[in-house]
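As noted in the main text, all predictions were made from sequence alone. Below is one such record, for Multidrug resistance-associated protein 4-like.
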Amino acid sequence: MYITPNPKIRGLECYQWLNPLFKIGHEEKLTQDDLYLVLPEDRSQRLGEELQGYWDQEVLRAKTHKREPSLMKAIVKCYWKSCLVLGIFTFLEEGTKVVQPIFLGKMVSYVENYDPANSAALHEAYGYAAGLSACVLVWAVLHHVYFYHIQRVGMRLRVAVCHMIYRKSLCLSSSAMGKTTTGQIVNLLSNDVNRFDQVTMFLHYLWVGPLQAVAVTALLWMEIGMSCLAGMAVLIILLLLQSCFVMLFSSLRSKTAALTDERIGTMSEVITSIKTVKMYAWEQSFIDLITRLRRKEISKILKSSYLRGMNLASFFAVSKIMIFVTFITNELLDNLITASRVFVVVTLFEALRFSSTLYFPMAIEKVSELIVSIRRIKNFLLLDEIPQVNTQLPSDGEVMVDMQDFTAFWDEESETPTLQGLSFTVRPGELLAVVGPVGAGKSSLLSALLGELPPSQGKVSMLGRIAYVSQQPWVFPGTVKSNILFGKKYEEERYEEVIKACALEEDLQNLKERDLSVTGDGGTPLSAGQKARVSLARCIRQTLKEKITILVTHQLQYLEDTSQILILKDGKIVKRGTYSEFLKPRVDILSLFDKGNKQSEPSSVQGTPTLISESLGRSLQSPRTSLKDAAPEDQDTENIQVILPLEDQLEGKVEFKTYANYFTAGAHWSVIIFLILVNIAAQVAYTLQDWWLLNWANVKSGLYFGTNVEEAADVMFVLNWFLTVYSGLTISTILFGITRSLLIFYVLANSSQTLHNKMLESILRAPVLFFNRNPIGRILNHFSKDIGHMDDLLPQIFQDFIQTFLLVIGVMGVMVAVIPWVAILVIPFGMIFFVVQWYFLRTSRDVKRLESEAQSPVFSHLASSLQGLRTIRAYKAEHKFQKLFDSHQDLHSEACFLLLTMSQQLAVYLDVICAIFVTIVAFAALILADTLNPGEVGLVLSLIVTLTGMFQWCIRQSTEVENMMISVERGIEYTDLEKEAPWELEYRPPPSWPHEGRIYFTYVNVKYSLDGPLVLKNLDTLIDPREKRGIVGRTGAGKSSLITALFRLSEPEEPDIWIDGIWTTNIGLHDLRKKMSVAPQEPVLFTGTMRKNLDPFNEHTDEELWNALEENEIRILPNTILEKEMDDPLILLKNAEEAAGIFPNQELNPHLLHLLNLEGGFITTVPSGKPVTLRGITNQ
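Prediction:
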């Protein structure tokens, strides 16, 4: 069911609009369609563009004044007005809390001086009771108005910064991409931006807290004189100590963020390259690597957690310490103490409890962490962008691609240019073929034409609109049709013509839903050849006969059909001319390549990047290379349709088993039992302090007013006894409070580490099918945001809830013990609280699950965009993809906004109920004044005033704990995934296996999923030792599937593959995969050193590694390359070297079966001895 949103809703004015949602959530599971549409003022595009404008202005001002831009200034200028107004609300709210003790003192004084005949005093007391009740109610309204609006400001700021981060990622230059990683960008979007949500709630308490402390000090001075200074000195020392935590929090946050970047970046690479990882049996190597990174990360998190634990312990104990020190000082000064004074002092100190001992240190912590996050985000936003190159149109306006004296460097520090002195011109109707050996600069030439490689000298002029097919074809999550159209309007005749021209008809027939089949992350897997044809169809929206076409290829047999041939070597033009010009002097083209360079021979069509400049009618200035004469059809566009598979959503409440698994992951049951006992002991000591203070105040009042007549020695003994016990209770409260805080943070940090490691191992043991069905963003969401919640938020919220819950129980217990009739009110009000919380929690839990799931498409879209960045920029589709990102953010904001409003609605209801409770108790205490003593009235009223904010906070935190436990629930779900066959079995093949290399396929049948079609059907063949067997066939015929079956990436239906006397299903996966080596269809390099890529287990010497590199023509790299950190391998080695870089792994394994998977892949079986390397046999 879809709920129609009300665009007139503005926060707390009326909560009736939420009632339909609560009704649905109470009756059934909520879905994304049940949520309200995001309000116009909260939309990602609007917020992002507004903040981007302020940031652009700040960057210009910084350039003018020759200083570094400040993102903080841009944020302040954008949001200062709304924050300033909300600061006034905070000031008024805390002001009402300071007034409450005055009314309370007057009421207790009335009971102390109770005179049944004095009706005027009674009426005056009723006025004080009404004033106290009004203060409680006004505080509740102001508090929740403030929290609602300030949290909304935080949400808007987070959304705006996310918009800016994604926008920047679409504009990054190649050199900038080498300074960041996908993991860092994901971490910025998942963890760093969340600091905006957290800091806004507490920001104003940095100044309100100290101001309130000054006001309380003045009132205390009026009440008990200079004794109050001792208690305030404790608070000042604490505030100064917490202020010193700023540097510690900043330092730890900076180090933690860097480690998190590295961990998430490595996870992203592993998930993206999971087939390669599994075929090389590198899972354990990456598990060890990521576990080491996680161990370093958690050590920093644990230190931050201990600081948070000390802050929460101070919140628990500092008010009691202040009260204790104040009254001890008062006793030493021999000042008068009465019940009214005692509880006015107690209530005034309690007024500082949240603002000065919780919110102030929280503000310090969050601001210090925010400073680090803002610095990290600012550094990202200041990375270099693709430069603007505005070249001049030829005077005659002729359409062409013209490069003149072009020289460029990928690495600005390098002395050798990537391209040097290139000059050529291509006109409409011409086909330019660019050929050359590996590393000659072919891909760099296309990058220069696309504006990705800026010139150090020379210029490029391109007239028209670009279409581009990359060397590694890219498809985004969506239908095949949307991938082809890429935002263009559908024209059936033209569309069918392109499908036919790109030979996609047969491919579409093999797909269940033809061109409406969803592909990309989590969709129907396409072969590399099918992806290439889809990319080509995206490029060829019309015939190319009259277009400018530039083809980079190794397919020398097609040079005869070209208009021009450009041969590159070492970034320079070796030869340029037509095919006929090459024939006349009998030039041997192959001789222009490096001798023995295998890549110069005919290879795969798939790996040939193509750039087509379409000469069309209008001019358009590109943000990069100038692109004139843009297509009129650019006006005829539609939104790109991205489709992501739905995530399985858990239902119902978070089970007790989840809580048990969470805690036992961090500690043994004995430690957990000890933790429970420490919590109980801390609360008992805390509660007994109030009880003991009551008795002490009654004794002192009795001695002062003469109701207790004792011998002097007895009086001193009694007072010393009270003082000694009170001191012991205070010390116990401090010790138990600190112990439980540190212990719970230690246990939950260990739980987070254990769950992460279990998730990691479960993920890497999952079959490839799991990664086909789940987008990379969804998996990264579990390892970034969910783990981030377990690291930072959940332990703090859990500790806060346990602490507050025990405080509420203790307060209730003391109240009932002191004035038993209060139980008559406590029981029904307690039931009302429970029912309200239960009703809200059902809906809140579902919305939180939807919020967690709505984050996954954001990360998936980011990861997909970074993979296809050059294609997106070539088609000038940045704006379309930005709109898609904003739409994903808006879906997430729908759930976030509802969580915020539901939380505030629950809090308002609870505090209104509390205000009613306070009113009843206050007036009842006055009515029954003749049956109560002043100490009892003072204690109960001080406790009930404290209870007002604390009770709703406890209920809200209990709801928040369950909401946060959904991250744990999602994590535990990933620890129990379906697993591949074991890596090792009890039976291990002999070390010399395979000794011959005979492979027998016996009627092999393979499915990618249980309900999927057979991709290999009754395959029966024998490959003899030393036989070189080529496997050919059209895309989708099953070539890659055969390798998948051989490596058991998808298990055959029966044991039907036999290698040298052993069925492959009778041995462990690693025993099988380590005996084979593969050059995969989609080559990858991992961040790290070249040595780590070639030899992750450190099994080979430098000499062996260099021999392997030389065998594969990569000796052109510098001598230091083995130990060079490859922060972005795609930028360091570029595509050709990257593809070649996978071959040395075969050279390093001389006793294995070797497989090369190209578009027309082949298998070579090799006995012990030197391996044989063959070219692939294509289907041409």
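The longest strand covers residues 1014-1023. The mean pLDDT is 78. These features were considered when defining construct boundaries for the mutagenesis experiments described in Section 2.9.
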